[in-house]
Write a structure and sequence with these properties.
The protein contains 18 helices and 15 strands. With 506 residues, it is of the alpha/beta class. Strands 7, 8, 9, 10, 11, 12, 13 and 14 form an eight-stranded mixed sheet that branches. Strands 2-3-4-1-5 form a five-stranded parallel sheet, with helices on both faces. The protein has a two-stranded antiparallel ribbon with strand order 6-15. Strand 11 and strand 12 form a beta hairpin. Helix 1 crosses helix 2 and helix 13 crosses helix 17. It is flat and about 75 Å long. The C terminus is likely disordered.
Length: 506
């Protein structure tokens, strides 16, 4: 409708996974490289690609299918809510295999596995590879995952016969991290989590799609509009497409050749049902009550921000999270829920708050010595309290002995934990924290995360900065993250409990 108005040949922001429009950010290139490595390596086993809803997983997969090596047979399953029998029938149908069955009744599981094994041996002898791709793999049942693991047992004396690619939402990582999935997890030869785009990448993404759609003139979105697109979309490509498409339509309806931030805001209310700013209120409440309610709201909102990115990419951007942690108390009308962890507690009279400035994550320096998690897991901190104290050093606060979270309150700092964080959220939060790592036996170790780059994390081991590849970290980290956050500045006399009173609980 609006394409001709803006000098475009076609609509640039369709949500269909068209590989022509794939914007190859560094993250997308790495994701595609992992898929191609898994196939070209010829090692068999599993390749796992995860990402937020709308992050571009399916589009990367379509691009991968266009670059699949020659002499490679592909089976693609996009609806994994199947029983074991249905899965095997679907795999055989995708590979055009007829399962023979002697006697009455339908073909059995064994009939399908035997037919698949015969097909894999025949194609292997002809110098061909076979790849099974399963999209939305977070919906696979435990029985189906176990059957897939058994299929990777089909092999010759030289190599595995079937390569399986699992593509899914972040829940897939949690699923594969379960103790009962240990045997399958050990067969994963490559894994990658596709994060959302940053603000600069969002601008490039919008420009890229407009260019592919035939734009020859000036960019229709001004700088403020792009900033608001990033703010509302959180860098998730599908959300960017929805919002940018509606914004262009709004500008067309107004007869405008430019999209400004006002048009984007109006489009966001239509597309995402963005809430209107809350009216100021609470004039009748005592100031102390407002301060306390502001702290509770801060804890609740920060908790929601830390959890939301694993539930559809709706987490707050770094600036929004920072405003939750350090802004003035919220009006009473904005408080949607009571505190989840106990009542407000008056601070001891002698505990004067000490200013503590939140540190930022460091860039992963190439000078940091590498650390082998597999060989050095036993040397990591076994006590969570010690990891908290190491983190306190980055904040330049002294926790002393005893419970670190109780001690942190004297510095007007609170502890916060989540079991479902992601590296994307930690990058947006932009502050160091404590990672809980778990080995194959579910034994926990604690390490301070000090920095992040595109492919490595900087952790502190025995007081020294060490570098760990993100791919190696993924084998030990399941999303458990803890950090400090600074309470609103006016809550010297009233503090809420944003974390359990003791940090020694496992």
């Amino acid at each position: 409708m609006y394409a001709q108005h803006f000098g475009l040949k076609q609509a640039p922001f369709s949500i269909a996974p068209d590989p022509r429009y794939l914007y190859m950010s560094e993250r997308h290139r790495e994701a595609l490289a992992h898929l191609l490595y898994g196939v070209r390596g010829g090692e068999g086993g599993f390749v796992v690609l995860t990402g937020e809803i709308g992050a571009g997983k399916t589009t990367v997969c379509r691009c991968f299918l266009e670059q699949i090596p020659e002499r490679c047979n592909v089976a693609y399953i996009f609806n994994p809510k199947l029983t074991v029998e249905e899965l095997l029938r679907t795999i055989c149908a995708e590979f055009h295999i007829a399962a023979a069955h002697d006697g009455p009744g339908a073909a059995t599981v064994k009939d399908h596995v035997d037919a698949l094994n015969e097909y894999l041996l025949r194609t292997h002898a002809a110098g061909q590879n076979c790849v099974l791709i399963i999209d939305e793999a977070q919906n696979l049942s435990a029985d189906v995952l176990e059957q897939l693991r058994l299929l990777t047992n089909l092999e010759t004396s030289e190599r595995k016969l079937l390569q399986i690619v699992l593509i899914g939402q972040p829940e897939l990582r949690a699923l594969l991290a379960r103790p009962e999935m240990q045997q399958l997890a050990q067969r994963v030869i490559a894994r990658y989590h596709l994060d959302a785009l940053g603000e600069a990448e969002t601008a490039k993404y919008v420009g890229h799609r407009l260019s592919i759609a035939g734009l020859n003139g000036p960019m229709p979105f001004d700088r403020g509009a792009v900033r608001r697109i990033y703010h509302h979309s959180r860098g998730v490509p599908r959300r960017i497409n929805l919002l940018a498409d509606r914004a262009l339509l709004g500008a067309y309806a107004k007869g405008s050749a430019r999209v400004d931030s006002g048009i984007v805001e109006a489009a966001a209310k239509e597309v995402f049902d963005a809430p209107k700013p809350a009216a100021s209120g609470g004039a009748g409440l005592p100031r102390a009550a407002l301060v306390g309610l502001g702290l509770v709201a801060g804890a609740v909102l920060l908790g929601a921000a830390l959890l939301a990115i694993d539930r559809g990419g709706r987490s707050a951007a770094k600036a929004d999270i920072a405003s939750v942690a350090s802004a003035a108390p919220a009006p009473a009308a904005q408080v949607a829920a009571p505190p989840a962890a106990g009542p407000l507690q008056p601070a001891p009279a002698e505990a004067a708050p000490v200013a503590a400035e939140a540190p930022a994550l460091k860039d992963a320096s190439p000078a940091a010595a590498p650390f082998d998690l597999a060989a050095g897991f036993e040397s990591l901190l076994g006590a969570e309290n010690e990891a908290w104290r190491e983190l306190a050093g980055a904040w330049k606060i002294d926790l002393g002995s005893g419970d670190p979270c109780l001690a942190a309150r004297r510095h007007n700092v609170q502890c916060f934990r989540t079991a479902r964080s992601t590296l994307a959220l930690i990058r947006q939060l932009d502050r160091p924290g404590v990672l809980t790592l778990r080995d194959a036996y579910n034994r926990a170790a604690y390490v301070m995360l000090a920095g992040l780059s595109g492919d490595a994390a900087i952790v502190v081991v025995d007081g020294a900065a060490r570098s760990v590849p993100l791919l190696a970290l993924a084998d030990y980290w399941r999303g458990e993250f803890a950090t400090f956050w600074r309470a609103p500045p006016d809550c010297a006399a009233i503090r809420g409990r944003s974390a359990p009173a003791s940090t020694t609980r496992r």
